[in-house]
Amino acid sequence: MTSGTIALDRRPAFWVAYAVAALASLAVAWQLFPHAIPLVHLDITMTRDAAIARAEALAAERRLAPEGARTAIVFNHDESAQSYVELEGGGKDAFARLVAGGAFSPYWWDVRLFRLGSVDEVLIRLRPNGALDGFTRRVAEAYVRDAATMALPPEAALALARERAARDWEVDFGPYTLLDQAQQTRPTGRVDHKFVFERSDRIGDARIRLQLVVTGDELTQVRPFVHVPESFERRFAEMRSANKAIAGVASLSAGVLYGLIGCVLGALWLLRQHWLVWKPPLVAGLIVGGLVAATILANAPAAWFGFPTTQDATTFWLRQWGMALLVFVGGGLALGEVFMAAEGLTRRAFPDHPQLWRLWSREAGGTVEVLGRTAGGYLFVPLELAFIAVFYFATNRWLGWWQPSESLTDPNILSSLVPALTPIAISLQAGFMEECVFRAVPLALGALIGARYGRRGLGIAIAFVLQAVIFGAAHANYPGLPSYSRLVELLAPSLFWAAIFLRYGLLPTILLHAVFDLVLISIPLFLIDAPGAWVQRALVIAAGLLPAAIVLGSVSYTHLRAHETVLDLVCRLLLE
């Protein structure tokens, strides 16, 4: 810790008011999140292991998959349907009703059963509650089950499709009418039929449809889907191009200003002045890189999902381990370089800030400065959650904006062998890396360059505004309407986080950013109502509380030798 560390407000009234504001914000977020993020309406009662077991049992019972088939699994969702419904089909409330209803499930488990070296495979689709939702079987072009019945007439094929879909896949044809049919004759003489049905109820101009495929004399596909108007697809593509253009300009600016000038040249300048501390940031970078690399291996079941059967298992695992090693070594070293540049520049520009790599040491971790910064970082998270919920709710309802609520959390984390690992790794990486790159580096550069020309305050002010604009614009690659909505959404938080950094340093901003991301990304884990789900939730909660545990442990080490309890210590510090 530096001798001139800025003291936190020790008045009890301040902390009581701060805690009350955090609790009130949490209540607001709890009320508005179902409107802002429709995913929270999803009820998941089937885990990945249960989905795999159900699919394997079905495939064995109905002889859909080859002997000795491997399994791969993903938790899928229909992004195109969601985008249309939220934008032009009734809004987020309409999509929430679609999620909660039974006409079409925009989320589902996809289980692939396949054998390497074989074309024959099956994809079984299950709803989040375990109900059957369809399947697709892939067979070789020359496959013929029975030469006598391999070329059914359309009427016979339609009757077979309806009977098998209703009997084996629980399809209720009551709301459906036949919309279209087609057939194709294969070189072997086998005739494949395709039938498309459409429901009578509508979602704006979109339609819920059902596709059945008969291959020879076998039903080989039952696939429900939402048909989105082609005109919307074109408009959506134009909107995405604007999103990507804004993000591209911002990313290029960040790469030059923060990456090249700040991290690379800044680190070289610190090295030349003998101010560069390299070991702790390198260790931190490798830890973060190692966690991200571990998610690659934990996500292998999903990676198998798109792996071509023409390649062998050795190729697959060489690719997975190669990517993991590259992320661990290359990514870890790159993150370490970013961390050492950001910390070094911050140390020179703001000598009153606590030294980042000594914050959790025994002598520093138990101080009121670190305790207050840790508590402040945690208490700010509910404020940020409430802001996001209010922003999405208000702009969507009264301005007609649309924000990518589903881009904040990926439900496919549920397909991982360790679902909690992905949110933990991503939130830690984002909290550390983005606060170093987008907050510490530009503000430290602004202070140092401004001081060099006798305009320190002006340099900080310019960097203060610039970092907020670039940070918001760099995240505009998410789909959003208008194209600048993501920039506007992140502008205020970026300014608040920068103000917190300028006053108290990196610890509270890294902590609030990481915990905020952890809360959002781990939402799917808290939607599962199934045996064993509590383990993954416990891992997420433990990761989120780890910084608090470290600080309280340091407090205990430093002060309990004087026979004080933690509560006594906190009260004494607040009342001093």
Please give a quick description of this structure.
Helix content is 59%, strand content 12%.
Extended strand count:
8
Tally of helical segments: 17
Low-pLDDT segments: none
Quote the distance from N terminus to C terminus.
20 Å
Looking across the biggest beta sheet, what order are the strands in? 1-2-3-4-8-7-6-5
Shape assignment: elongated
What are the key terms here?
576 residues, alpha+beta, 8-stranded antiparallel sheet, 17 helices, 8 strands, 59% helix, elongated
Structure, explained:
This protein is α+β, with helices and mostly antiparallel strands and 576 residues long. The chain has helices spanning 12-36, 48-62, 79-88, 92-100, 154-169, 230-272, 279-298, 300-303, 313-349, 362-365, 368-399, 421-452, 456-474, 485-504, 506-521, 533-559, 566-575; strands at residues 70-77, 107-114, 121-126, 132-138, 176-185, 191-203, 206-215, 218-227. The protein has an eight-stranded antiparallel sheet. Strand 2 (107-114) and strand 3 form a beta hairpin.
List the helices and strands and how they pair.
Layout: H1 12-36, H2 48-62, E1 70-77, H3 79-88, H4 92-100, E2 107-114, E3 121-126, E4 132-138, H5 154-169, E5 176-185, E6 191-203, E7 206-215, E8 218-227, H6 230-272, H7 279-298, H8 300-303, H9 313-349, H10 362-365, H11 368-399, H12 421-452, H13 456-474, H14 485-504, H15 506-521, H16 533-559, H17 566-575
Antiparallel strand pairs: 1-2, 2-3, 3-4, 4-8, 5-6, 6-7, 7-8
